[in-house]
Each structure stands twice: as structure tokens, then as C-alpha cells.
Give the backbone structure.
Amino acid sequence: AQTVTQSQPEMSVQEAETVTLSCTYDTSESDYYLFWYKQPPSRQMILVIRQEAYKQQNATENRFSVNFQKAAKSFSLKISDSQLGDAAMYFCAFITGTASKLTFGTGTRLQVTL
Amino acid sequence: NAGVMQNPRHLVRRRGQEARLRCSPMKGHSHVYWYRQLPEEGLKFMVYLQKENIIDESGMPKERFSAEFPKEGPSILRIQQVVRGDSAAYFCASSYDSYNEKLFFGSGTQLSVL
């Protein structure tokens, strides 16, 4: 079975600080993609960052970067210089090359404080 | 350049009624996916459709749920004889091709069953 585990139901960070959200996954496939989605109160699912499993280099998008450890099946998200607008639910997800569906974790609720 | 459009945004039904959720994919996209999000959970895959075809319905409940994506018009997720447990947010996503690591999500329909 393919699973995604987000062990932090809630996290809090002060504005301008850095926070890391953890995610582990399990799959027997070697070809897959990993994602972090942001879901603000508006409910819109917004793609934050994606990583191809065959790439060793960690993906980066502005203040967002990942630490992809393929052997450990770990895919954490680092948010630098946190802003109030970063407050949301964050979902880790992956899809394998042979499947047609994303598998999501249960999410981490991020609070950003002044 | 409209994104994925879902309507209605909120739908209230009494037990036993039918719910019809509509999804218009992004322009040029012929692949549609439906996901369900129960409260405090991640999204769970339901069904994957291409124009006029169901490709993967492994996540669809065996009874009362059906989906279609006709040649013309939006994709429809239909839930017959709704029960309280059907209350959830239903998301539609679309992609240009079957490489759905480039999915675009709609804002979802919140179904409330009284």
C-alpha cells in the first residue's frame, strides 16, 4: 500500500522565522513525484512545490524548499522568512509513474504569529 | 484563462436527496479527477475520467456514487440518496494529459447533508 504520513498535526512559527514540516511516505515504486500543497481557509488547493524522485537536487521555490531523502523516504518542507499569509493547512502528497491518483497525508496546520 | 471551475461552492441536501456536483476543467484539459476531503483529513482519490470514459474508479463507493465527463459540458459527480456521512468537500482537478503531476485543482464543493 502507498501511504503518506505527516506526524505534526499543528505547527507554529513566528513571523520572519523558519519552520520545517515533516513528511514520510511509503512506496515500492522507483518512479514518482512528490508535492506540497497549501490549503488556506478559502479551501483552494495551491501547489507549493514539487520534486521528481529521480532528481537528487532538492527543489526550491522562493522561500520554500524541500529536503528530499529518497533512501529514508522523507520529504520535508522548509519555509523561510515566514509570513502571515503562509498560515494554512499543508498537505504532502505523491504520485507514482504507474498510478492515476495522488495520495495525500492528513495535513499539518501551520500558524504564523507576530 | 480561467482555472478549474466547480459549482456550486456550497450545496445543502437533506438525507435521501440527490447531489450533483459540476466541474469544468481548465481550457484544453481533457483529464478530470475527483477527490473527497472529510473534515480534518487529506484528500482521497475517487475517480479519474477522460472525455466520455472512466479510466480509474477505484476510489468510488460501490453504491450511490457515479461520475461522468461527457463530450460536451462539465464533468458531473452524482450522489444519489445522500446520507450524513457524504458531508465533505469534493474537489475536482484537471490536467492536460495523463501525466498528472501537473494537476490544477478547483476550489471544491462543500456538501452538507442535513
Notes: The CA atoms of residues 37 and 43 of chain B lie 4 Å apart. The mean pLDDT of chain B is 92.
